[in-house]
Amino acid sequence: MNKFRRITVLFLVISISLMVFTSTAFSADSKTTDGEYLQSIIDLIKQKYNGNITDDELLQGALKGMFNTLDQYSQYYTPEEFEEFYGSLEGAVEGVGISIEKIDNNLIVNKVFANSPAKKAGVLSGDRIVQVNGESVQGKELNEVVSKIKGMSGTKVKLGIMRQGTKNLITLEMYRAQVDLPSVHYELRGNIGYIHIDSFSQNSSKGVSEALKYFDGKKVTRIVLDLRNNPGGYLDQAIAIARYFVPKGIITTLDYKDTLLEDKIYYSDLEKVKYSLAVLVNENTASAAEILTGAIKDTKAGVVIGSKTFGKAKVQESIPILTDEAFSKFNEGSEKKSANAYDFKSYMTDLSGWAKMTIGLYYTPNGNCIDLKGIEPEIKIKEPTPFGIHVNLLEPMSVTVKPSLGTQYYDVLSAECVLKLLNYNIGTPDYILDANSVEAIKKFQKSNKLSSSGILDFTTQKLLNKKIADIKLKQDKVYSRAISELMK
């Protein structure tokens, strides 16, 4: 499927102000009042601005301004930006393995992908990027910063970040690589099937299907579906996954502002519910993940456990915007003009950019709109954070590198966290393998009858990974409650 496909199958008409701007603002013979006004602004810039600027750059700036003004979820992308940020939903990307968004003029990491260079270097969701290779990126455009971070596999990049709770700049060094981005992870835990969905990417429903086939082969019918920290993604993938669990009836209803569009109702045809299901959520469960959660809760297809979800019921459409020249060419002789490239066949090479725009709201099967409200779990449990460590976010070590003294590495953080939870004197986990960490590793090795070298070797990493799994089972109260509910 084309990687620039729409999130939903719709044909939208861009607002008349945008059509006027793209078709007349850069035309010297414009007869419309709006066109004359906008053209006068352009002429003023060209006359007074002491620098070089092209009509296309002015158009790109105006488009960004219009769409970025709508709401926090609407945004305009150049074709390069769109490929970069929506490429992460397709299953693979070359770079360091992070997703970035611009919030209040800050460049915030909203996701760090598993086994990526960024993950191993210690980048965390919520980090604010302020430097790339020692150069400040404050006030820079998103695409410019992304271009600085991107590069050929094997090349090095340094990110300077600020992190909540710290005052000093953190510099993390990593090597770019091809990053696979699987969104679905599953495993058999005794007689329980565990599925964790990071986000709803293009292949998420396929991943869930594979998981369920595996569990079916093991005759496992009790499922834990972990949607904690899932920010959403493709709507069609959330719907497809819902159809594995939600009984026959409504999954969700989309209410569009555009009167030319009929509200869309998505249904499940599942005649008989096959699985006993527990869904885990938290305050970072959002958007498409809430569509799935709301459908399961309202239809009583499973029990929802955890803390109240984020509360995003706004639905976005990704719309390709024609260039000024393509707009004139494709709309010649037409009474009803459109800048939406989806209204034409040959649009892929004639794009000014892409607009991600809020087009409607979704409602749960019971008719609830959870925007800014979130979904209240049926069983409310706060996630445990002993020593400030989020137990459910603990990651196993990669068992690919043996960090040396002074190394700053994600595996070191995992080791320090688990040692801290095992009551070793580790101080504050900080990614750095310092003398304090080495001493704690020695004590752990000695107590487990390993060579007490203080080296984080593969044998030690594997044993620590087993401890992480044990801790998750024992200290993740949300997961533990899910098991209790499923075993009733």
UniProtKB/TrEMBL annotation:
Provide the PDZ domain boundaries.
90-150
Entry-linked InterPro entries: ClpP/crotonase-like_dom_sf, CtpA/B_N, PDZ, PDZ_6, PDZ_sf, Peptidase_S41A, Peptidoglycan-bd-like, PGBD-like_sf
Q: Which GO terms describe its molecular function?
A: endopeptidase activity; serine-type peptidase activity
Q: Which organism is it from?
A: Ruminiclostridium cellulolyticum (strain ATCC 35319 / DSM 5812 / JCM 6584 / H10)
In Swiss-Prot or TrEMBL terms, this protein is called Carboxyl-terminal protease
Q: Where is the signal peptide?
A: 1-27
Q: Name one Pfam family in it.
A: PDZ_6
An example Gene Ontology biological process? proteolysis
Q: Which family does it belong to?
A: Belongs to the peptidase S41A family.
